[in-house]
Automatic annotation (TrEMBL):
Its cofactor is FAD. Binds 1 FAD per subunit. GO terms for biological process: photoreactive repair. It holds the Pfam family FAD_binding_7. One of its GO terms (molecular function) is damaged DNA binding. Keywords: FAD, Flavoprotein. Residues 93-134 are annotated as: Disordered. Residues 118-134 have a biased composition (Basic and acidic residues). This is CRYD protein.
Length: 134
């Protein structure tokens, strides 16, 4: 199997990495990449994280995006020990707090918190499925 990447753009790729790290060029003041929100929006069930971070495979659903916020009992049940089998977070940005314990798709969390806002007009269909004005 041979894979050829045809969309490689050095400037764009490095720019995106810098932006994700929070040090890129952005005209908006204090703009930061919110990893938890992105995880909930694009990997709501946590399948991608589970594929690449086997230490967290025992954590069910979207909780995989914030293992440090789980109870000791939930971590124990998943076979995760923070600081031993999986590292403690190096930093937890204040901006993340409103996304911790949210559920993808707006379904309520068992503790009564609401999930992220739904944007049904987003994604590829947003750009290609609407009828264009003549």
């Amino acid at each position: 199997l041979c894979v050829l990447k045809v969309d490689y753009d050095v400037c764009s790729n490095y720019g995106n990495w810098l932006y994700s790290a929070g040090i890129g060029n952005d005209p908006r003041d204090n703009r930061k990449f919110n990893m938890i929100k992105q995880g909930l929006d694009y990997d709501g069930s946590g399948d991608y994280v589970r594929l690449w971070v086997p230490e967290l495979q025992g954590i069910k659903g979207a909780d995989i995006h914030t293992p440090w916020a789980l109870s000791s009992a939930a971590l124990s049940q998943a076979g995760v020990t923070l600081g031993e089998t999986y590292p403690q977070p190096v930093v937890t940005a204040p901006e993340w707090s409103r996304h911790i314990h949210q559920r993808p798709g707006g379904s309520p969390h068992p503790r009564g918190r609401r999930g992220p806002a739904q944007h049904k007009d987003r994604g590829i269909d947003f750009y290609f499925s609407r009828k264009k004005d003549a």
